[in-house]
Design brief:
Elements: E1 25-26, H1 58-64, H2 86-101, H3 111-118, H4 128-137, H5 158-164, E2 172-174, H6 178-186, E3 191-195, E4 198-209, E5 212-218, H7 227-233, H8 238-247, E6 252-256, H9 262-265, E7 267-270
Parallel strand pairs: 1-2
Antiparallel strand pairs: 2-7, 3-4, 3-7, 4-5, 5-6
Helix pairs in contact: 2-3, 2-4, 3-4
Length: about 280
């Protein structure tokens, strides 16, 4: 489905870069247990192997079991306003979720401090992979140290750079296909990805409906709701529409699993953040 952009917003996601392919381990090659100091929350459930469940089993999994909802770790939705910064916004939302998931206090981070590096000094967008690389190496400046009014062109001060090092992400895994995408959400991994030149962060796998498997993703347009999503709800049964009302609240996108453009824009799962060595 083509994305319906709100008035005043523009496409800003660039395709993944060939030179960054292989920069992140594949999701299916991850270690089962998350690294880091004790305690270690959200260790994956014991399983025979690390392969994603076969597609034919998804219906029974998503419908029978309550799926992890990482939306509970979202304190506020990002709003890129008139910048093409969705790659940085989605990566920042992803980082904030990972911090909260690990039990850290909420600290609002500034996506434009990340976009300063990945934009190349011109507001023409950036790639998810570029933003993840910088989020790992340089971190993201807290909003309390640098607010959005400074924009993305203002250089990041040495003091801000030092502070941002405390707000880096750790492991990210390259999600290569639809099966891994669904499996990551089943296991409680947020997934940041691209779709129709826009970056969002998937937070929960939803029940299937008439053979279509849906999930919800946090957007970067504040509490705006896509009218296309409202239309799509009318094509479902009354029971499923009632179910969606409790899931797709303002700020979320409703998407089917065949919509992420994984090969073109990429998708990455994360499971921890940096810690003091």
């Amino acid at each position: 489905m083509t994305l319906n952009y709100p008035v005043g917003y523009s496409r800003g996601l660039k395709p993944r870069r060939d030179d960054l392919r292989g920069r992140f381990r594949r999701f299916r090659d991850r270690d089962r247990q998350r690294p880091g100091p004790d305690p270690q929350p959200y260790v994956e459930p014991d399983q025979d192997d690390l392969d994603s469940p076969p597609v034919e089993s998804w219906d029974s999994i998503t419908d029978a079991d309550e799926q992890p909802d990482l939306g509970k770790f979202i304190t506020g939705f990002k709003d890129q306003e008139n910048n093409g910064s969705c790659g940085a916004e989605g990566t920042t939302q992803f980082t904030e979720i990972l911090r909260r998931q690990r039990g850290m206090d909420f600290v609002e981070l500034n996506p434009l401090s990340l976009y300063h590096y990945t934009s190349g000094g011109v507001d023409r967008g950036s790639g998810v992979d570029e933003n993840l690389v910088y989020a790992q190496s340089t971190g993201i400046v807290p909003m309390s140290d640098r607010d959005r009014s400074e924009g993305f062109l203002t250089p990041v001060s040495a003091a801000n750079q030092a502070t941002a090092m405390d707000y880096r992400i750790g492991e990210c895994f390259d999600v290569e296909d639809q099966a891994d995408f669904a499996h990551a959400l089943m296991l409680g991994y947020p997934v940041v990805f691209g779709w129709d030149a826009h970056c969002v962060c998937a937070v929960k796998l939803l029940r299937s409906h008439k053979g279509t498997r849906y999930f919800k993703a946090a957007g970067s347009w504040g509490a705006w709701v896509d009218p296309w999503e409202r239309e799509r709800r009318y094509r479902v049964t009354d029971d499923y529409r009632d179910y969606l009302r409790s899931e797709i609240t303002p700020g979320y996108h409703l998407l089917s699993l065949d919509e992420p453009e994984i090969e073109r824009y990429g998708a990455w799962a994360g499971r921890t953040v940096t810690w003091d060595e």
